[in-house]
Design brief:
Elements: H1 6-18, H2 28-37, H3 40-46, E1 54-55, H4 56-63, H5 67-79, E2 83-88, E3 91-96, H6 99-109, H7 117-127, H8 130-137, E4 146-149, H9 169-174, E5 179-183, H10 185-193, E6 203-208, H11 209-217, E7 222-224, H12 226-239, E8 242-246, E9 254-258, H13 264-270, E10 283-287, H14 297-301, E11 307-311, E12 321-325, H15 335-339, E13 345-349, H16 360-371, H17 374-378, H18 385-398, H19 401-408, H20 413-426
Antiparallel strand pairs: 1-3, 2-3, 4-8, 5-6, 5-7, 6-9, 8-9, 10-13, 11-12
Helix pairs in contact: 1-2, 1-3, 2-7, 6-10, 7-10
């Protein structure tokens, strides 16, 4: 690792975090967050790490740090949620945490060490605003980290048999053996920033499988049973919280239980107008006029304010108000249906299927392609001069609008992903495809 002054060191760390799957606006608030959370030694290590998962040995070779010392630094970073460690390929693999889902969430979920929640909450509250969403969705990006999972019982009965397992919270839980529940980082942030409006429970955030293992080992969440997890899901349904899960079909590893007043991701839609901040389910809300009384409970419950009550345009109707659903923003979560006392609003299939990546590999590849950082997954050694040149060359090509548009198109997307998979396998990293 090179020797940099404090200012240059944290600038380099910011460059590394911006080069991951979630882009970060560069401003003084970001600098303050990084200086608060990372020691100079930790900043130097993270800014020299590969952008993707890498073994201790490979990181040692790149950074020049002796493995025993390096492992202690990486373990301390993992306990703070600033590095993600996953058991894969018969050893721990490490990668820098992105801003979300990563630095923000894990910092506000920490349960050990020096916990300055109030200061952290203030900084994140200031940082995760419109500029952050514009950086990640301002060019029409459609790949988000999260997707809406519809509440069971909210879907029109005639269409319920068509709902797929990856669209059911209960089926996602059934497919895993390890579970954890932690503090909702968004409500926790609002609480300590002094701007929380609701009384929803803090302990709701749910993880499964290898993600739960990471959270449990690093004391970011508490291990629970499958029964406790199902009870957690049932409670959130009754409370009218929206389920936002990992935006993949296979091996979903987390579900957030989101309220309209605190959730950072949902605010990207309702407050800042970026409809893809949370990808919609394959369903959309619709009202049955013969059952609707115009009570407005659906509009109140909607977590993104996509339902507006307007004076009825039907003189013969007994209702004074009608719910009007904004189809361009509805995420198909089903909270409105759960809260409707008359069963007058239900979810029905959208006219066209929504793009949900098959697995984490596809989510990473497509998300990085959209945000201009895919070259960092291909040439992932930030300390290599040769790879720096290749990142610049390939990155410039991939950022061309016509290239990006074609690779994301229905015609070429599958072929492009297959080529990327073969490339990973040829590098001897086929295990990445199984995560």
């Amino acid at each position: 690792m090179g020797h940099l002054g404090p200012k240059e060191l944290y600038q380099k760390l910011g460059d590394t975090i911006d080069a991951l799957g979630t882009r970060v606006p560069r401003n003084e608030t970001l600098n303050n967050i990084l200086k608060e959370l990372y020691t100079p030694e930790e900043a130097a290590v993270v800014s020299s790490m590969p952008y993707g998962l890498a073994s201790l040995g490979r990181i040692s070779d790149i950074t020049g740090l002796e493995p025993v010392r390096l492992q202690k630094i990486l373990e301390a970073l993992a306990q703070k949620g600033l590095v993600i460690d996953i058991w894969a390929n018969d050893e721990y693999q490490y990668m820098p945490s992105p801003m979300v889902i990563g630095i923000f969430e894990f910092t506000m979920m920490r349960t050990r060490g020096q916990l300055n929640y109030r200061k952290w909450a203030g900084m994140f509250n200031e940082y995760l605003t419109g500029e952050f969403f514009d950086k990640n969705f301002g060019d029409g990006q459609v790949i988000s980290l999260m997707r809406s999972i519809p509440h069971e019982g909210s879907i029109e009965e005639s269409e319920y048999t068509a709902i797929l397992d990856y669209e059911k919270a209960a089926s996602i839980i059934r497919d895993h053996e390890t579970f954890s529940i932690g503090i909702c980082s968004c409500r926790h942030k609002k609480k300590h920033a002094g701007s929380r409006e609701c009384d929803m429970p803090l302990n709701t955030c749910s993880t499964f499988g290898y993600a739960a293992d990471y959270w449990i080992r690093n004391k970011l969440a508490k291990k629970v049973s499958r029964t406790e997890m199902l009870e957690n899901i049932a409670r959130s349904r009754e409370l009218g919280l929206a389920f936002c899960g990992e935006n993949v079909k296979d091996n979903v590893t987390f579900i957030c239980h989101c309220c309209k007043c605190c959730c950072v991701a949902l605010s990207g839609i309702s407050k800042y107008g970026y409809a893809n901040a949370v990808v919609t389910s394959n369903y959309i809300a619709g009202a049955h006029e013969d059952k609707c009384t115009g009570c407005g409970k659906c509009a109140t419950a909607c977590p993104i304010d996509a339902i507006e009550m307007r004076p009825t345009q039907k003189p013969s109707s007994k209702r004074r108000m009608d719910p009007v659903i904004d189809s361009s923003f509805c995420i198909g979560c089903g909270v409105c249906a759960v809260k409707c006392p008359k069963g007058a609003i239900k979810l029905t299939h959208r006219k066209s299927r929504v793009l949900h990546p098959e697995n984490v590999f596809e989510k990473v590849i497509l998300g990085n392609l959209e945000r201009g950082t895919l070259q960092n997954q291909i040439f992932d050694n930030p300390e290599s001069v040769t790879q720096k040149f290749m990142r610049g060359f390939v990155g410039g090509f991939l950022r061309l609008p016509v290239v990006k548009q074609n690779l994301m198109s229905d015609k070429l997307r599958s072929r492009f992903l297959e080529v990327m998979k073969k490339g990973v396998a040829l590098q001897g990293r086929g295990w990445v495809l199984k995560i």
